[in-house]
Backbone:
């Protein structure tokens, strides 16, 4: 007699703890447990399986960012929260593609999430602007900023890499680069 194993949804508090603890297993578990409802939502509302995967991936990133920020309070079931994020993201995508007919076929309870998604979208815009400013920065500034802030390299490592006479000179160069980066960032529209 063979047993059929069905993936069940994790308990909400376990899922949140798993995200807080960077558990890849928990993220996979959440993905498997809740993707079918998102697939149904998107397929029933002018979308494809590929669209559903994109939307779901984006929703998991929103959830992950929100939980990791430390100020996340779940005021509904996790399933409802994830569905609500996906629903909002899919409505936005439909509007962008001019495929929105005015109503959406819902299969789950949902809640309004305007503030969370607006904040996430604003952060995305800021990150895009920062990436654009960083690309305009040029060398060696771009590499110095990336080495220090993204790759967490020490000023001594940067000093050695760029053959500065000492770490203080590298620090001065980093400061000048930051000032240029700030100027480029705020010049962008």
Residues:
């Amino acid at each position: 007699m063979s047993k059929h194993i069905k993936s069940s949804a994790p308990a909400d508090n376990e899922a949140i703890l798993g995200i807080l603890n960077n558990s890849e297993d928990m993220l996979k578990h959440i993905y498997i447990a809740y993707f079918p409802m998102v697939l149904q939502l998107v397929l029933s509302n002018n979308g494809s399986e590929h669209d559903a995967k994109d939307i779901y991936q984006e929703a998991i990133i929103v959830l992950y960012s929100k939980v990791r920020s430390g100020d996340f309070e779940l005021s509904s079931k996790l399933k409802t929260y994830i569905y609500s994020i996906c629903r909002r993201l899919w409505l936005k995508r439909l509007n962008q593609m001019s495929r929105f007919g005015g109503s959406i076929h819902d299969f789950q309870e949902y809640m309004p999430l305007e503030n969370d998604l607006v904040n996430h979208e604003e952060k995305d815009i800021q990150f895009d602007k920062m990436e654009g400013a960083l690309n305009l920065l040029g060398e060696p500034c771009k590499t110095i900023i990336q080495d220090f802030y993204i790759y967490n390299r020490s000023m001594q490592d940067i000093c050695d890499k760029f053959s500065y006479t000492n770490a203080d000179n590298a620090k001065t160069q980093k400061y000048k680069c930051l000032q240029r980066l700030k100027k480029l960032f705020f010049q962008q529209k």
